[in-house]
């Protein structure tokens, strides 16, 4: 079995002095108290300036990711909320958020970063695997989950990412034994990790380093899941 012990030895060399500013945090706090179109229009110039600075930060995160992974695209999410089917009709999000998609069919999974006073975090993994991917993952864990459990129990990995999270079914998916020893994994519908950051950490000059270090640490998990999702149960590639 492969050795998934985590060792983070790569020296950090910043792309630049990119930081999340206290002014950006203050703007988000003001927006939370004045979440209406009139206030936003009056302060749109301020928003655009902060948005540009935060986007620069995300771009720098992407550049760091590309030093140890292959990122297909970075997407910053819009500040405007879709309120059509929501009871909450406030028009604006009170956070900045963006995702980073890995390149190609052979690299699976993605990264996410949200900036919000009191509720900032990074997340990674598989939020909504499609029906085929979910079935393949479950069949793998039905057959053998020892490699995953080795990663999840690694002290260095757990120190950064904690426990595997994600919604699941209450008992067992159709066709699977609810008494299976790996049912805790089989019944999941999402396979994600979340790491929270305090405001002090987000506003520090080392925050971009901490984000990148966290993302580097997830690589053993991504390598295993990518292998699962690009092969059949016999370990044969399903890619063209």
Contiguous low-pLDDT stretches (5 residues minimum) are 1-17
What's the architecture in CATH terms? 2-Layer Sandwich
Total beta-strand segments:
5
Shape: globular
Radius of gyration: 20 Å
Pfam families: DUF2461
Organism: Flagellimonas pacifica
InterPro entries: CHP02453, UCP028451
Protein name: TIGR02453 family protein
Explain the overall architecture.
Pfam families: DUF2461. It comes from Flagellimonas pacifica. This is TIGR02453 family protein. The chain is α+β, with helices and mostly antiparallel strands and 240 residues long. It has one domain: BirA Bifunctional Protein, domain 2 (2-Layer Sandwich), CATH 3.30.930. Helix content is 41%, strand content 14%. It contains 10 helices and 5 strands, in the order H-H-H-E-E-E-E-H-H-H-H-E-H-H-H. Strands 1-2-3-4-5 form a 5-stranded antiparallel sheet. A hairpin with a 4-residue loop joins strand 3 and strand 4. Helix 3 crosses helix 9. The longest helix has 22 residues. It is globular, with a radius of gyration of 20 Å. It starts with 21 loop residues before the first helix and ends in an 11-residue tail after the last helix.
Task: State the main characteristics.
240 residues, alpha+beta, BirA Bifunctional Protein, domain 2, 41% helix, globular, UCP028451, TIGR02453 family protein
SSE layout and pairing:
Layout: H1 22-33, H2 37-42, H3 44-65, E1 71-76, E2 96-102, E3 110-115, E4 120-126, H4 131-143, H5 146-153, H6 155-161, H7 183-186, E5 191-197, H8 199-202, H9 207-217, H10 219-229
Antiparallel strand pairs: 1-2, 2-3, 3-4, 4-5
Helix pairs in contact: 3-9
Organism: Flagellimonas pacifica
InterPro entries: CHP02453, UCP028451
Protein name: TIGR02453 family protein
């Amino acid at each position: 079995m492969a050795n998934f012990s985590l060792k983070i030895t790569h020296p950090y060399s910043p792309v630049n002095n990119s930081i999340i500013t206290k002014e950006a945090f203050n703007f988000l706090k003001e927006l939370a108290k004045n979440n209406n179109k009139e206030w936003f229009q009056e302060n749109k110039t301020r928003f655009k300036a902060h948005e540009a600075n935060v986007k620069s930060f995300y771009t720098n995160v992407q550049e760091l990711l590309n030093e140890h992974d292959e990122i297909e695209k970075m997407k910053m999410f819009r500040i405007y909320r879709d309120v059509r089917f929501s009871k909450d009709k406030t028009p604006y999000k009170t956070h900045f958020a963006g995702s980073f998609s890995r390149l190609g069919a052979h690299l699976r999974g993605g990264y996410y970063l949200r900036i919000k006073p009191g509720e900032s975090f990074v997340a990674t993994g598989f939020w909504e695997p499609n029906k085929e991917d979910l079935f393949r993952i479950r069949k793998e864990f039905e057959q053998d989950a020892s490699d995953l459990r080795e990663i999840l129990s690694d002290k260095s990995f757990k120190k950064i990412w904690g426990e595997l999270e994600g919604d699941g079914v209450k008992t067992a998916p159709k066709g699977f034994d609810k008494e299976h020893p790996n049912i805790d994994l089989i019944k999941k519908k999402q396979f994600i990790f979340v790491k929270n950051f305090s405001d002090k950490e987000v506003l520090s000059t080392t925050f971009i380093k901490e984000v990148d270090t966290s993302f580097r640490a997830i690589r053993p998990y991504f390598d295993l899941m990518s292998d699962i999702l690009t092969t059949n149960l016999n370990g044969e590639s399903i890619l063209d």
